[in-house]
């Protein structure tokens, strides 16, 4: 990877840097850096060029407006979206010659293959909007496109990413049988706290208060640049929260803490410190973010259980809370939803199921 200073852009009056990564060797990075600097000396800054490509303006927008205003994990996801979807759609094209019909065609393709195609469209639009503000183009072609509605397939509409109370209990029983205490503790907390999988993976023992039976959620495990696993604070005030836990879950945590100390000591690690990760691999490092998915999928397949995602357990927790009569505000606070609409969507699902149940009860009453 390299991060080079290019100079001051005369149009934007800002320092211009370029960052590139993904090189196999230091020599490859040095060659790419030299070519990049030579390109600027030969052709000038993107804002000066008569033929600025989309790639040029994307780089300019990234450096001058985006990189310093987002967290590293967000930057990593954004750059991945551009690399995989947006840049291939406009690669090497003169940004002044990109027309609305081409943008519409690419947007339709994103709709057909991506669930979050709206996010991809918004990112692409921001590059064109930046070019417009910098007088690189005269109009934004995305202003004239129509965002197509995604057609939900039968398989997608029928897929319910949650368990019933009975299905959740069955899943946890199989986890207890098939996996070790470490993972049973993880999935029990996942089910009984409603926390996100990455929030639990980031927990330290100092985040647990055994006196008040609470979990302090204040950080999350995510991927930074070059897919490096990093810990960062939760993004919003809603995400930072204290979750009340039940007696049995706290008892299980105590058991796991004792077992972890004994097990890790044999591997040469002293875990009796506040900063010790609750869930750590045999190198006493964080688990990869995808490991819970793999563990869950293995248990489901081995025992013929309904297939849901790890995030679906969080959805299940939310659904059970509503079925118990919890208020929308209480559920939003417990799960850390920033947007109450997220909570409302799950509430709508629960009330839909309850309406079906009411109809069945009425029919049975009439039959008797």
From TrEMBL:
UniProt record, GO biological process: DNA integration; DNA recombination
CDD domains: INT_ICEBs1_C_like (cd01189)
Gene3D superfamilies named among the record's database cross-references: 1.10.150.130, Intergrase catalytic core (1.10.443.10)
PROSITE patterns the record matches: TYR_RECOMBINASE
Any GO molecular function: DNA binding
Start and end residues of each Tyr recombinase domain: 158-360
Keyword Cell division: no
The family this protein is said to belong to: Belongs to the 'phage' integrase family.
PANTHER family tied to this protein: PROPHAGE INTEGRASE, PROPHAGE INTEGRASE INTS-RELATED
Protein name (record): Site-specific integrase
